[in-house]
Amino acid sequence: MIEPVIGHLKEDGHLERNRLAGADGDAINAILAAAGHNMRLLARWLRLFFALLVAIALSRQVTGQASRLTPITT
């Protein structure tokens, strides 16, 4: 049951052969693979979040909601 998960991590995470020796090396490699996966998820979330912010800002400019202030004339 674990083999498909490892294969998925190797393919999507661009993991190569584990070059760290021993049981400690296996544990370190697993932690680093999980950290890399989480960082990719975080980067994807941030891209979507900033795209949403840009879309909101652009939609406010198009509809004129951003320019509610009237210029002062003397």
How would you summarize this macromolecular structure in one to three sentences?
This protein is mainly α and 74 residues long. The protein has two helices and no strands. It has one domain (2-63).
* Net shape: rod-shaped
Amount of helix: over 70%
Q: Separation of termini?
A: 77 Å
Low-pLDDT residue intervals, each spanning 5 or more residues: none
The radius of gyration is: 23 Å
The biggest beta sheet, please? none
Q: Helix and strand succession? A: HH
Number of domain modules: 1
Mean pLDDT across all amino acids: 76
Count of helix runs: 2
Counting helices, strands and paired strands, the structural category is: mainly alpha
Q: State which percent range the strand residues make up.
A: under 5%
Q: Please provide the count of β strands.
A: 0
Secondary structure elements and their pairing?
Blueprint: H1 2-12, H2 22-63
Give an account of the 3D structure.
With 74 residues, this protein is mostly helical. The chain has one domain. Helices cover 72% and strands 0% of the residues. It has two helices and no strands. The termini are far apart.
What tags apply to this protein structure?
mainly alpha, 72% helix
